[in-house]
Structure formats: C-alpha cells, structure tokens
Amino acid sequence: MNPLLVIPARRAHSNHAEVARTIGIDIIAGRYREGTKIPGDAELILRFGVSRPVLRESVKTLVAKGLLSTKARIGTVVRERAAWNMFDADVLAWHLDGGIDKRFLRDLADIRLAVEPRAAALAAERRTEADLALMAAAIDRMRIESAREAPGFAEADLSLHLLVANASGNPFMRSIGAVVEAALRVSFLLSAPVDEGGYEISVAAHARIVEAIAARDADAAAAAMTGVIFDGLRRHGAAE
Q1: Is the distance from CB of 210 to CB of 136 less than 8 angstroms?
Q2: CB environment 141-156: b (16+ within 10 A), e (fewer)
Q3: Which of 49, 62, 84, 236 could form a disulfide with 190 if both were Cys (CB 3.0 to 4.6 A apart)?
Q4: Which residues touch 52 (CB under 8 Å, ≥6 apart)?
Q5: Is the pTM higher than 0.85?
C-alpha cells in the first residue's frame, strides 16, 4: 500500500483498547496479511507488556469488528477485507492512522455514490427554508475559504454534504454521513483544488447542488451530487 495521507489517531485510554488499536492498524496496513495467523499469545504479551486477559480482550474486540477470527487448533487468523466492519468508528480511525490509499478512496466514493445522490434528491423534495439558508451559508464559506487554504475549504465542503444528508429527512442517511465524517474530511482535504480556477469550478459545482435542491429538482440535484463526487475522485487520482 502506498498511503496518500496518514492521520495519527489519538491514543486509546485502556491497555486492551491500545493493543487492539495497534494490532488493528497492523492488519489494515498489511503487516498482518489476510488469511494469515497473527503471532501467538506469548509473543504478543511480550511485545505489549500486558497480561493474558488484556490480550484476550483485545482479540475479542478485533473479532467483533470483523478483523480477526479464532478457531480451535488453528489460531487467530486475519479475516478477508470484505468482512471488516468499515462503518465501525475504530476501524475507520485505524485506516486513517495506517494511511489512506487510492483503494480506500475508491471504496469510500462507491458508498457515497450509492447514498449521496439519493440524499440530494430527497433533500430537493423535503428541504425547508432553514435547510436552504444553512446550505447557502456553507457555499459562502466555501467561497471565502477558497482564498485561503485546503483544510478550511475541506471543512466547508464537508459541512455542505452533511447538511444535504440532514435535509433529506432520512435519519439513516444522516447517520452514514456522521459515521464516515472523519474519512470524508480526509477525502475532501486530498481532493481540494490546487489553484484559483479549480476552487471556482468546485464552488460552482457545489452551488449547482444547492440550486437544484432549492428548485425542488430531484433529478438535477442527484446529477449535480454525482458530478461532484466524480470530480473529487479525479482530483486525487483515484478514479482510474
């Protein structure tokens, strides 16, 4: 894996959580490969300086998150990536800590394409005047931040997408946005434009989403949202 960006996570507050975090990052970063056994209890106890009960609790945590499986006479094995609970807050945080790569960004874009255009369409049908005011303010913030730097622009970009999800009136869509918020923030940071012209194009593309929602044009809102997601993929080179 060639990570595009690493976002160090905060340290865990308990021994078993810190052990789970470290092993989880090792799995996600590919140091423990899918289908292989992780080191035995004795080696891990020596490595982390913890008791056997603490280690067992850490393994249970990773099993619950889909990263490991334990089988009698076989040992503790790394599960295939498809089994990992990608909506788990810790698993997402460990991806950020281990380093985001293009595969992660493409997978994130896939779930966004499955949810966000529909959220925009629903927002066009259900939005309130208060929703529109907040979205307009987010667009204004994007215009202001475009003259500054990528982190501020990414935050403004993220706020707009979460506002659209909220305006959809569907709590599941808003919850998905909240769960993957940290990953979206990094994605938007990576896909922020690099020049003034790029910023203007990006702001205009996002403004089209809000305009379509304001006009109650569900099809146009969905299409505008789809275009924005693909534009972001192209900017950080994960579209191919």
Answers
A1: yes
A2: bbbebbeeebebbbbb
A3: 236
A4: 41, 45
A5: no
Per-residue pLDDT tens over the stretch 4-62? 655 555 555 578 999 999 999 999 999 999 999 999 999 999 999 999 999 999 999 99
CA 146/CA 226 separation, integer angstroms:
21
Contacts of 39 (CB under 8 A, 6+ apart): 47
Dig out the tokens for 122 from the structure: 């629903």
DSSP state of 87: T
Report the C-alpha gap between 186 and 93 in whole angstroms: 11
Question: Residue 104, Cα to own-chain centre: how many angstroms?
Answer: 9
Q: Residue 182 and residue 166: Cα distance in Å, rounded?
A: 17
Residues comprising the chain, all counted: 240
d(C-alpha 61, C-alpha 20), whole Å: 7
CA distance 151 to 211: 25
